[in-house]
Each structure stands twice: as structure tokens, then as C-alpha cells.
Amino acid sequence: SSPHLCLPPGASKWDVREKVWDYLESSGLADFPRPVHHRIPNFKGSHQACCSIKELDIFSRAHEIKVDPDKPLEGVRLAALQARKTLLVPTPRLRTGLFNKIVPPPGATKEILRTCATSQGIKEYSVPVGLDGKARVDLVVVGSVAVSEKGWRIGKGEGYADMEYAMMVSMGAVQEDTPVITVVHDCQVLDIAEELLDGHDLTVDYILTPKRTIKTNCKRPKPRGIMWHKASY
């Protein structure tokens, strides 16, 4: 785990988030949009980390990939578009349905694909996919604030990744064994105490960093469906 970041015993999820955000900013690793606080933080080297997804069999075999709209995952969205996979991106804050499918124009140039992978492109080149849509997602890529080598994940604290996953379970879009990948800087890989995890927390199977690919072999079951008592209106 990260040599730079020591978590005090009994650190809460918010302690972990603050530590990571502060460290990324103070060490010069933070990247646009800044400050990284209260976001899934972008970091220097995110593109390199994203590119290593192309080495994974589960990526090669996947037809339909769900990738979060966060900036540090832009390289994964681009890789999916370049490989001509179906790319689903959740609607920011789940305001207008669940997913948008990114549909590049026919004969799109590299430049246009690059635009399609950005937040602007997600707005311009997408069509909504309803909850009744026949989405069959083969691979899920989520952003994280911190993650452990065991696959425990801490997001930015709003529960969207957990909720989106639960909605996908409910609509039959993901199975028990659908792999979940996250992309982080090496300093975001920390030992996270298991007692910080809740039943609805999403775990990850692979962690991509600028330096390595970690297979977590996480055995903890993923969320089984929507926990309505956790849902805001």
C-alpha cells in the first residue's frame, strides 16, 4: 500500500477521503479539474493507467462497457470507443434516467472519438438508454477516491456508483460475476479497514494505476439490488 499516506487507526471514510484529496493536491499529483476535493480525483498519469485496460482479457472480450463520467476515466472511454465497443455512461447525478449510450458519428476520426470520450462528448454524442433497455454490461469501470488491494472501495461519498450498480443488478444488466475495474493513482491504494464497508458498498476486481495492474481476488459479494432506504428522492 502507499508509503506516503498513513491512515490513523479508527480513520473514518471521510478521514480517508480528506487525506487522499489533500495529498494529491500537496504533492503536485492532482490534475484538472481542481481542486480535486469532493470529486473522483483526476491525477497525473491517469491516461497511462487507463491504457493498461487494453491488456486485460476481460476488456478484449467485452462488448458492452459501462464507464463512469469522471475525468480520470476518459482514457478508458476512449479505449472502448476505439475498440468499437458499446459504451454506456451513467447520466451525471442520475437526473434523467440511468445511462447514455455514446454513439460516435459514422466514420468518426480519432479527434472526434477523443471528444466523444470527454464530458462534452458525453452530452453531444449520446442517446438515452431506459431502465427497460436490454443493456447487458460485460464490464463496469468506476472511479474511486481510495481503494485497497483487497478490493474495498471508497467513492466520493454520494453513493452513486453503488446505486448505479444496484440498478444494473435490478434491471438484469450485470451478473454476479461481471468484473468491476477502478483506475487510481498509486497513492490512492491504501489499507482500508473492513469495518468501514457497508452492505451496499461496491467492491472492485481490478485496480489500474500508472505503475501496475492489481487483481484483487475480492470474494465479498457485490450489492444485490437497490437498498431503497438509502435512496434520496
TrEMBL record:
GO molecular function: RNA binding
Keyword RNA-binding tagged: yes
Organism (species): Semnornis frantzii
SUPFAM superfamilies the UniProt entry points to: NagB/RpiA/CoA transferase-like
Top-rank taxon, per record: Eukaryota
One cellular component (GO) term of this entry: cytoplasm
Descriptive protein name: Methenyltetrahydrofolate synthase domain-containing protein
InterPro entries linked: FTHF_cligase, FTHF_cligase-like_sf, NagB/RpiA_transferase-like
Keywords: RNA-binding
